[in-house]
Amino acid sequence: MTLFNQLTGLRAKTGNYPGVTVGRSVGIAKSGDVEIAVEDLPGTYSLDPISPDEQVVAAVLAGEMSDTGCPDAVVIVADASTPHRSIVLVAQVLRL
């Protein structure tokens, strides 16, 4: 089960290959009486988009999507066995 599904209680299907997840999934997580919108974005290694799925991620994080503002928080799920593949994305997100 993905972190998104665990947080929201949904059963969103995901895939780990290019082009399978170009859209965004949105669900609600609850913490006590507070509802938190959780958005699952396509996987990417950089905010310099070269594909449609990477363009979605860059636009959402930059607050450029017409239906949402800038996120209040970001959770990056990275493969710890290959940190060199994710470190660029982590640095770019921290700069935002």
Automatic annotation (TrEMBL):
The cellular component terms of Gene Ontology attached to this UniProt record, alphabetical and capped at eight, are: plasma membrane
InterPro entries, alphabetically?
A: FeoB_GTPase, G_FEOB_dom, P-loop_NTPase
Matching entries from Pfam families are given as: FeoB_N (PF02421)
Q: Where are the transmembrane segments?
A: none
Please list the GO terms describing molecular function. Answer: ferrous iron transmembrane transporter activity; GTP binding
Residue ranges of domain FeoB-type G in the record = 1-96
Designated name of the protein: FeoB-type G domain-containing protein
Species of origin reads Mycobacterium gastri
